[in-house]
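Take a look at this chain, tokens included, and explain the fold to me:
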Amino acid sequence: MVARHGSYPRDAPRDTEESATGDEESNRRIETLKALNTLALELFKALNILNAGAAAGMLAGLDKLQGAIDSCHIRRSILLFVIGLVCGLGAMLFGWIVLYVRLHLMDDTNPDHDPKKHKRTMLVSVAFAATGLFFFCYGALNAAMNLHEPKATCQKQ
């Protein structure tokens, strides 16, 4: 059995129709995996940008926010955004582990190959992402629900 360049011996040429169909299916799987990886990466980036941007925005406008929101609620909101950012980073880390396991440890030539082995790690990544989004929403609601008229404006009237 002669191996083609960049392939395993098990991929030796077969009938042309069968190999063309197999190649198309393999290419489709690879392209789908690339698209899903890109989508997941963009979602993780968006989650981290939301949390980091919200925390940075609150810190940048702290002097203006102090009159409109009590300081304990500002601190709580910033803390929630930071926790959300850490959860987003955890989601990215576990997402990377899923990719590493999928690409390097689960070789098709391995007789113990089980494509479902990385499912738990993937679920942990999704749980981290959902938790990060929860903390962002909770921090934003905490700040929004505790807005009040600045004391200086109330005293002028």
About this structure: The helical segments are 16-60, 62-65, 71-105, 119-145, 151-156. Residues 81 and 136 are 5 Å apart (CA to CA). The chain has five helices and no strands.
